[in-house]
């Protein structure tokens, strides 16, 4: 699946915003997105978030024979994977040009800069050395993959602990973490990449471009530097030609950003080590914000109800006269009430009222049979007075169901041909009219 291309309107909008020194996420031209580092339960596992770009890093090790041309040095292996989970444009199992370029840049940043002491990884010269493998997985793509991957890689390497080893003669013993404490890697410095996007042949410059900004940029410059202001690697791609002043300006910005990120990495490592020593909770589950989805609940709040009766009376007097007489508002205790918590039911028990209605209907069944004949006569007279072409409507204003009887099918003086449903509906209407008459008297 290919990535959704930008429309011409989006492209013009982004370029116009860049000309006006504005960015979609509200940052300034030289602002970096927020960097968040979280560690896993095991050593050497971490997730780095650069804005919405997320990279998972995992470091592992094993004992292998060394390379013939370097018998006293360990082996470093780096691998970056771009999965469709990060962006729909990435295809699994395919080495795209972007992936090849990113892997080469990471190797130049971490291996060629000699940030790790490979000689300390040697166990027996020419026979056994440690092979350190760094796997990087892009979880979400929102631009600037190389910066997030470089930060995640160096953080995972600093956080990793390899098993302790002892050599007695030709026998090599690898100790478990329970037997001996694992040993950290020997890291000389921490190279970090900082990316710069150029627009309109280098006239406009942005630090840490987002995914949409990368689509409209003319070229990019990546500078890898440590906190000592030593440039580890530099790469420029795209159809732009940079002058010396532009490169010097980018290197000065890189020095400031690298110093800030390095300090953030050291604080994160110190906090994680402190939590592990104190026996606290750590891992990805603890780093996730505690956000629970619960049912909606309104907290109780005090409400003044001293003048509720007066307000209710004013509303009733100003309103139109109702068809029925309403009683005055009932308040259990004047003073304060609470919103969000229920109070005592003032309508009584609904089950008892329903039972009373059922008893009344059963007691009135005999009287209903006597008055039913009278209602038949009234309905018959209504039928006689209506025209033959008009239908007879038997309904009530409070009844939900309306029954329409055609005059050709209904006899004048008998009700034996009506359906049981029509008979039940008519009985209900009669009982309600009878109750209204009683209430009026």
Description of the molecule:
- This protein has 441 residues and is an alpha+beta fold.
- It has a domain at 23-279: Ribosomal Protein S5, domain 2, CATH 3.30.230.70.
- Helices cover 35% and strands 23% of the residues.
- The chain contains ten helices and 18 strands.
- It has helices at 8-19, 97-110, 145-159, 211-216, 244-278, 284-287, 308-318, 350-363, 365-385, 420-440; strands at 35-39, 45-50, 53-64, 75-82, 122-124, 128-140, 161-162, 165-168, 171-174, 183-184, 192-199, 204-207, 219-225, 231-238, 301-304, 336-339, 392-394, 403-405.
- Strands 1, 2, 3, 4, 5 and 6 form a six-stranded mixed β-sheet that branches.
- Strand 11 and strand 12 (204-207) form a beta hairpin.
- Residues 380-389, 391-400 and 409-416 have low confidence and may be disordered.
Per CATH, which architecture of one domain?
Answer: 2-Layer Sandwich
Relevant CATH superfamily of one domain: GHMP Kinase, N-terminal domain
Name the poorly predicted regions.
Answer: 380-389, 391-400, 409-416
Helix content: 25-40%
């Amino acid at each position: 699946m290919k990535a959704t291309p930008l429309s011409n309107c989006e492209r013009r909008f982004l370029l116009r915003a860049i000309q006006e020194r504005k960015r979609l996420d509200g940052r300034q031209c030289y602002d970096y997105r927020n960097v968040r580092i979280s560690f896993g339960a095991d050593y050497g596992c971490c997730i780095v978030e650069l804005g919405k770009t997320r990279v998972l890093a995992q470091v592992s090790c094993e004992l292998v024979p060394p390379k013939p041309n370097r018998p006293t040095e360990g082996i470093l292996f780096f691998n970056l994977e771009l999965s469709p989970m990060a962006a729909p444009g990435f295809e699994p199992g395919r080495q795209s040009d972007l992936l090849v370029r990113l892997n080469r840049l990471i190797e130049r940043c971490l291996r060629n800069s000699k940030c790790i002491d490979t000689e300390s990884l040697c166990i027996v010269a020419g026979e056994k050395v440690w092979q350190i493998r760094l796997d990087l997985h892009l979880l979400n793509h929102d631009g600037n993959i190389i910066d997030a991957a470089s930060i995640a890689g160096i953080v995972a390497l600093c956080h990793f602990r390899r098993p302790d080893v002892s050599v007695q003669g030709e026998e090599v013993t690898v100790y478990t973490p329970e037997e001996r404490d694992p040993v950290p890697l020997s890291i000389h410095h921490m190279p970090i990449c900082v990316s710069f996007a150029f627009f309109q042949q280098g006239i406009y410059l942005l630090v840490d471009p987002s995914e949409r900004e990368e689509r409209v940029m003319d070229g990019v410059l990546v500078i890898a530097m440590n906190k000592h202001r030593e440039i580890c690697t530099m790469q420029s791609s795209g159809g732009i030609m940079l002058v010396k002043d532009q490169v010097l300006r980018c290197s000065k910005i890189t020095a400031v950003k690298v110093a800030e990120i390095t300090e953030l990495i050291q604080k994160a490592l110190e906090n994680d080590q402190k939590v592990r020593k104190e026996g606290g909770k750590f891992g990805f589950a603890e780093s996730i914000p505690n956000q629970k989805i619960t049912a909606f609940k309104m907290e109780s709040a005090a409400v003044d109800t001293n003048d509720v009766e007066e307000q209710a009376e004013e509303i009733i007097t100003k309103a139109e006269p109702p068809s029925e007489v309403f009683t005055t508002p009932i308040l259990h205790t004047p003073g304060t009430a609470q919103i969000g918590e229920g109070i005592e039911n003032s309508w009584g028990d609904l089950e008892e009222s329903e039972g009373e209605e059922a008893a009344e209907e059963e007691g009135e069944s005999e009287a209903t049979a006597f008055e039913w004949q009278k209602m038949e006569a009234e309905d018959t007279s209504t039928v006689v007075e209506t025209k033959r072409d008009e239908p007879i409507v038997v309904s009530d204003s409070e009844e939900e169901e309306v029954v329409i009887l055609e005059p050709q099918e209904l006899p004048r003086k008998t009700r034996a041909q009506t359906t049981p449903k029509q008979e039940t509906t008519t009985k209900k209407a009669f009982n309600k009219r009878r109750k209204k008459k009683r209430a009026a008297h």
